[in-house]
Amino acid sequence: MEKVNLQGVKLFAPASIANISCGFDVLGLCLENIGDYMEIRRSEKAGIHIKSIIGQDLPLEAKKNVAGVAGLALLEAHNPQLGFEISIEKNIKPGSGIGSSAASAAGTVAGINYLLGNPFSPTELVPFAMEGERLACGSAHADNVAPALLGGFTLVRNTNPLDVCKLPTPLELAATVIHPKIEVKTSDARAVLKQRVSLEKAISQWANVGALVSSLYEEDYDLLSRSLVDEIVEPARSILIPHFVQLKSACKEAGALGSGISGSGPSVFAFSRGMNTAHKVAQAMHQVYEKTDIPFEIHVSPVKQSGVSFLEDIT
Description:
The chain has helices spanning 66-78, 100-115, 122-137, 145-150, 186-191, 199-218, 221-227, 234-237, 244-253, 275-289; strands at 8-18, 27-43, 47-54, 83-89, 153-159, 162-167, 173-180, 258-261, 268-273, 296-302, 309-314. By secondary structure, it is α+β, with helices and mostly antiparallel strands. The chain folds into two domains: 8-167 and 304-314, Ribosomal Protein S5, domain 2 (2-Layer Sandwich), CATH 3.30.230; 173-302, GHMP kinase, C-terminal domain (Alpha-Beta Plaits), CATH 3.30.70.890. Strands 1, 2, 3, 4, 5, 6 and 11 form a seven-stranded mixed sheet that branches. Strand 8 (258-261) and strand 9 form a beta hairpin. Helix 1 runs parallel beside helix 2, helix 2 runs antiparallel to helix 3 and helix 6 runs antiparallel to helix 7. The longest helix is centred in the middle third of the chain and has 20 residues, at 199-218. The radius of gyration is 19 Å and the shape is globular.
C-alpha cells in the first residue's frame, strides 16, 4: 500500500564492484560503506525533477541524468502522472569503476518504490535502473545495479528476459578498492576487448566462474582465491591502468585472496579474508601509488548484505 503519509525518504545508495575478475558483465557485489546519499520527495508536478547534486558536476535535466531516466522508466510502468523530486549527495565519482551511475539509478527506483508501498520487488526494479546504465554507457547492463538493489553477490544469467541470481557471501570476506584518479571511459575499455576468444581461454573462464560461485556457497576462501583469474578481459584492459601489475603483486604479498579490475576501471579491487588483512592490502596499494604522481583514494569495506538502505522517513 502506498505510503501516502510520507512526503519523502532519505536513503543510502551503495557502490558496487562488477565483473569480479572472471565474471565479465554477469557478476557483481555490493559495498557496505561507500556510496551516495539521496533524498526523494513527492512532487505535485508529474515526472522526475532533480533539485540538486552535491559533489559532482552532473546534469539536472531528468532525461540527461541516470537517476532521472531510471525514475521515469519506473513511473512509465506504474503511473506517469506521479511526480518526485530528487536530491543527491554524490560521493562515488563518475568513471571510477565502482558503480557511480548504478548507485544513482538504483537509489532512485528503490526510493520511489518505497514511497509507493513497494509495488515492485527488488529484482523487478532492476530493469528500470538498467535504463540509467543505458544512458551512462550505451548498454543496459545489470552487473552493478543488481547488487546495488539486491545486496551481496549477484549473477546476471540473462538480461532479456531478466534473470538475476542472488548468491551467498562468505562472512569474513572484505574488499579493498583503490581508485587512481585518471579517466578510463567505458567506451574505451570496451573498445580494447577482442570480439573473439579461443576455446581454451573460454573453457578456463567458464571453469573459474563456476568455481567462484561454488566457493561462495561453500565459504571456501582457497577456492575463491584460485577462481579470481580473468583470462579474457583483464589482459586487454590492464594496459589502461598505470602500475596494474605492481598493484596485483603488492596485494598478493599483503595477503589478499586475489585482485582485479573493478568494472571497466580504473579502480582495482582486492578481496581478503577479514578486515585486518583488507587494511594491510590498503597499505600495500598506498605504497605502490604514493611513488607516482597520480592522485588516488582507497576504500576498505565489507560486502553489504542488503542493497539500498532507507535511513529516514520524511513526513
